[in-house]
Amino acid sequence: MLNKIIKLSKKTVGISDSENHMESSVLIPIIESKNGLSLLYEVRSEYLKKQPNEICFPGGKIEKDENRKEAAIRETIEELLVMSENIEIISASDILVTPFNTIIYPYIGFLRNYQGTFNKDEVKEVFHVPLSYLLSTEPQCYYIDVKLIPGDNFPYDLIQNGKDYKFGRGKYPVYFYLFENKVIWGLTARITYDFVKNIKNL
Fold first, then answer.
1. Which residues contact 98 (CB under 8 A, 6 or more apart)?
2. Which sequence spans correspond to the domains of the chain?
3. Confidence label for 5 from pLDDT (cuts 50, 70 and 90)
4. What cofactor does this protein call for (predicted)?
5. Consecutive H or E run containing 192
6. Alpha-carbon distances, residue 75 vs 4, 29, 117, 138, 154 (angstroms)
């Protein structure tokens, strides 16, 4: 048993309970525009079942036969109709763990020679926001209360104070970036915020 414990020193630290979360990867695409370096965003197709017309980064669920970075690249190729050689991954960005059993692994990357293409089955349109704007603009931030609600079969008899136990509460920040006629909010704004914050902290 001691030998097994010692072997833990070689284990890569993971995220607790990740096997019970949906894991996705996204790319934060950086392009050259007339306004300098910019982040590229998608508007999801209005015909999609989940989150139609929402603003997002290219990305999606990690398949069993690929790693996180490969998933971000594959999804970008599928959604923006680009070649893998046009995608240059710089680094991973901050991992986002949500209160609703989702883990998102963002990757920062240059999208070279992008010609404005996209898959119309998944994407309604694309647009870009100058990095200078994001660096100089503080997003609006609002909070959603996160409350623990035990299920009907929760064993209250096994815990101190039973049904009177005071479960913790939390606050979940929701960010909003307003750019021209676009509203970037939710997970995409959170990923944007983390990316911009990390640049500012360098």
1. 104, 187
2. 19-136+183-200
3. very high
4. Mn(2+); Mg(2+)
5. helix 186-200
6. 38, 12, 14, 29, 39
d(CA 88, CA 110): 5
User: With bands split at pLDDT 50, 70 and 90, how would you rate the model's confidence at 12?
Assistant: confident
pLDDT band of 2, cuts 50, 70, 90 = confident
Give CA 201 to chain center in angstroms: 20
What would the two tokens of residue 202 be? 């360098």
Q: Which numeric CATH code is attached to 19-136+183-200?
A: 3.90.79.10
Residue 32 CA to residue 110 CA, distance in Å, equals: 9
Its pTM stands at 0.93
Contact 67, 107 (CB under 8 A): no
Q: What is the DSSP letter of 15?
A: -
**Among candidate residues 72, 37, 34, the one with its CA nearest the CA of residue 56:** 72
CA 3, CA 71: separation in Å to the nearest integer? 35
Residue type, 181: N
Place of tokens 């999609």: 48
- Does the pLDDT value for residue 160 go beyond 90? yes
